């Protein structure tokens, strides 16, 4: 960094030239990502969590859904490493099992939402005119439906379930990334390099893939990491209304929700710390990954 | 447009299983004759008519500005919404403004001083704030500040029997802080990312090369980073003014969110549709404003409308 | 969070149904929905009223407990799980009284005959539930009548016995191949926990059962269409007279005509209960009630669990407070309350 503390330009030039010929952009991005310690740490933490959640239940001697009532709310011990919950279920087994649900809901919903949102938003912003007006209206309508109402209605019709949560969250979250993508494209399509491409006779598909999507991605990737956090946290909030993950199945959200009492908060940290830390670590590492990916694919940035 | 939303809401609300007349009559009321009571309630609420007829009647009065009456409390829905609007705007508005007041300077500084300690600290704090569920933060806040330290009131708008402004502000501190923290965290990230995007552009280099000071260059970049920010704000405001069910519940704040969820549970159709229309109108207004603002903050944008 | 039983408190809809809002010791001065009701003393009440102004607040029980500790509240209804915490607070007295209703599982009796219900009840370890979830503050119930004089002494207690329950269920012709659902309105911690335990216990004897959280309106819709298998019910006011329980027991009160949501139907019981209800003198009706209770106990009309006590925590400043279990009576002698020391 120079004394002005603004990113200095010239050093970006060699990378641009290398991008055209020497190193494939994908590998270059990967190289940039690996040099970012926070992003690497995020990826490692997330990987560890995914592995724990996938293999943990196989190693745990306890069922996450069945407990011994006699041992309810006992503190961590050799038998129960993270103690037991209000009805005597092994807390560690529940953290593993809950993670499967929470991570699945969070990532699938966010992924679905971002893919749909980016495509729709980019095309809508690029084409403008009638298509844009219609899509914008659809987005407006979707956004104007209160999410809680939608979730309760769907829970009533389809029955509350994990796939239902994923689809409803995705349906509620995609307009957000679509709006962001559209806003960026509106600005991008007036810029010189895009106009130049258009004047030079590039096909629309080429412009969208080559210029618009890369331009939109940084903003959308940041939004996506927030969407993962949103979905994981929404799952917790929805379990408030009984429309979330159904008991006895655990999720980090409903475990945390079960802990909202003064007694638990003040004297039983083993009930709220593990799911709390798990949610926290998930959101934290996703965001670090998001930042890393954004910086890595942002070609204007020097390595 | 308005008609589509109205029809959509009307149908959606009625898709949910359950009959409001059934929920209104207590289950052990008048053993043996309960069915007649339910039937009478249904007639009184106009639910015995076919759904299209119900819609025409409802939409007709809607055009006259009449949102109907609550099934359960018999209050006018318009008045019900107005009663909740004040506390909601107060709570959510303060949280939004406070959050932005924190996020804008922090986001800009984090972007300008990229990869320094300030940036890392801002990033860490905002991520931590985003990673804690609001209901849990609220509970922790009550536990720490109301129960342990005893410096803030735990819930409600006023102390019992009081109604002065100082008291209200005192009660606002905890819920507003919880909500504002989430706003500040999200917007710091948006603003930082928008600023970085702009700071990397050629025109900034040109300005700097022409001899502009860092402050002017930053202001240029900030102005141009407003586009995505306006988009996000246009999404945020309606959601925010629809109330925060969980935080309202915990802090016993009489806002929109609680009203809507309670109405939903007893299938109070007029209140639910009234609330839905309120949100729809908010979304439409904010979108229009956003589109207007796009052209203000970035003259290059030719709006499609 | 939405179950009113979890809202501590001081405020429930039942309160507004009471005539004492107008004629009682206090009159209402202000009502803020979802927040509070302000009351002031009624100067025309038959007795002098001890407290000038009374505020009823709608709070979650967690916040209510916090406010009790900070002194913002003088009286709160406490969740069973927090009993120990509240008891440990200084300056807070905890008292409790049995509520006037009881918690039970309502089975769809058209699908599940008495033999199945007996087996399912035997599979539930109610004593341990009371001990762990309610801190001992609940009483076992083995009849839908809560009036002591109407109950015979030799009711079957359906003591917990997993092995016995399993063989009973196998002998009852129960269809083990089907998946059954248990629907209830979630949001009250003690109920949610108890239901989770009961589902485990039923699964242990081979019942293929799934939890389904619903809201009140959906629950009623499923009851009306008879689509439900099991649901959960609580509350009510049944201590005054055994006849009050008939609202959910008589064939003629089958939903939607009345509150018999489990569709319990036994002509012998109907005949006896109607006869008892029509008999004025308690001495004459008691033996008939006992006969009816015996039938109902054998049929397991509802899968009774227990009568949880209503636990009140009062600051020691509040004097002359007596705990009542049911809301109809909770404020019956509120005029005697005083704030002191």
Biggest beta sheet summary of chain A: none
Greatest interface (CB-CB under 8 A), with counts per chain: A-B, 69 and 77 residues
CATH class term of the largest domain in chain C:
Alpha Beta
* CATH superfamily label of chain A: MetI-like
What's the structural domain tally of chain A?
A: 1
What general form of chain C does the structure show?
A: globular
Overall pLDDT confidence of chain C: 84
CATH domain topology of the largest domain in chain C: Dipeptide-binding Protein, domain 3
Ranges of chain C with pLDDT <50 over ≥5 residues? 1-21
CATH topology of chain A: MetI-like fold
Oligomeric form of this entry?
A: heterotrimer
Counted beta strands of chain A: 0
The overall strand count of chain C is 14
Please, how many helices of chain C? Answer: 12
What's the architecture of the largest domain in chain C in CATH terms?
Answer: Roll
What does this structure look like?
The complex is a heterotrimer of chains A (303), B (305) and C (341). Chain A has 303 residues and is mainly alpha-helical. Chain A has a single domain (25-60, 88-297), classed as Orthogonal Bundle (MetI-like fold). Chain A has helices at 13-20, 25-34, 37-59, 91-127, 129-144, 147-158, 162-188, 192-199, 204-239, 252-258, 262-267, 269-297. The longest helix of chain A is centred in the middle third of the chain and has 37 residues, at 91-127. Chain B has 305 residues and is mainly α. Chain B has 14 helices and no strands. Chain B has helices spanning 2-15, 20-24, 34-45, 51-63, 77-112, 117-131, 134-148, 165-199, 202-209, 214-224, 226-241, 245-250, 256-265, 269-297. Chain B starts with a helix and ends in an 8-residue tail after the last helix. Chain C is α+β, with helices and mostly antiparallel strands. Chain C has two domains: 12-97 and 310-339, D-Maltodextrin-Binding Protein, domain 2, CATH 3.40.190; 103-308, Dipeptide-binding Protein, Domain 3 (Dipeptide-binding Protein, domain 3, Roll), CATH 3.10.105.10. Chain C has twelve helices and 14 strands. In chain C, the strands form three sheets. In chain C, strands 5, 6, 7, 8, 9, 10, 11 and 12 form an eight-stranded mixed beta sheet that branches. In chain C, helix 5 packs antiparallel against helix 7 (162-171) and helix 10 (267-278) runs antiparallel to helix 11 (282-299). At the A-B interface, helix 5, helix 6, helix 7, helix 9 and helix 10 of A face helix 1, helix 6, helix 7, helix 8 and helix 9 of B.
